[in-house]
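step: validate -> pass
step: tokenize input -> pass
step: predict -> running
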Amino acid sequence: MSLTSLKIHFALDHQGQLTTIEDVELNGLKCKCSCIGCGQPLVARLGKINRAHFAHHHVTSNCNYSAETDLHLAAKEYVRCHKRLHAPLGFFEGAVSNFPIEFTDVDYETPIRPLKEIPDLIGHTSTGEKVLVEIAVTHFCESEKIAKYKRLNLTAIEFDFSFLMPWSAELMERISDTFATKSGNWLSINPVSLVAKRVIDFERKRCLEMALNVKTLESNKLSLEGELSRIMDAIDENRPTAEQLKADYLSRLNEVESQFYSDKADYDGRIQTLKLEHASLSQQNAKLESIAQHSLLARKTELEAEFRAELEKSASEILQAYTDIKSECEELERKRMHTLNQLNALKAEFPNIGYIKTLLNKAHLERQAIVKLEGELRLIARKAGIPWPLSNDITQEIANCISLIDKVEV
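step: predict -> pass
step: emit ->
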């Protein structure tokens, strides 16, 4: 990452003490801070949108400050401020259990005498013990440095931060989580320290538990060996019977296998026969389908001819019926015209037909007198030997005349 894009989180204040961007109150060069890597002036950028950070006032190529340096300083600053971390309960790498170590004071990159080595941090406990803390980002402690710590019986622990990315908004939270939940690796432990006592007591307890587990496993082993011995004796005792059963089973298996292959050959022959019969039936079925197809076509043609003949006959009958009906209609029309002409002639012959209708209506109203008169007239005609000239009685004839006059008027 180039210095122009690197957002620096740590710097040296005007007194040469380590400070963070959160501790700076003045913006720009007014912060009076310098770079840890090259000593050049830094400007504080305390914006409200982007994350606050330091940046070089003038870009230089001689600065060895990097994102790893920022991460390294952030981890050390966390321990220096919180004075607390968790250490593994065990000397082996990847111990599951851990315990907290509280510090009353933390020294920052203080040399150890008579060694020339400078640990990242030296934590002082309330009992006066020293715990050397190494922060690994890209470089881990070399074997030579670890050997010096062991030779002087120093208590030293190393934490791995190589899995973290350069500075981000969640970096301090992840550093806190690493120191609080993830144990480091012991480089060396003072055998007479309280830290060593706690780790050794835990290891001793684990060893006792493992010893008890070993005794339990040995007891289980003896029990299983006895059970295995009994099983082997039972197997040896029943071996002749088992051998005889095996021989009988193999003999029976050979018989079944022989019968199987015999039945298989028989079934194969039957299958072949059925295949041939199937082929023959398929040919016969194809012939029958062909014959049926031709018969159906012939019957279809015959039915179509019959249907066409019936259709033509029905059409002829319908046409004849239509002709007859038309003739009858024409005859009725002639009769209607003839009747109409007769009515018109009657109208011309009887111009006073209305007056006659009035007289007939009046006579119809006087039907009681007419009925009496009709009886007298019938008696006179009978005495005189004259036949009655009307087909109906007089009242009925009057009604018929009125009906006829109504038709004529229409």
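step: describe -> The chain is about 60% helix and 15% strand.
step: cleanup -> pass
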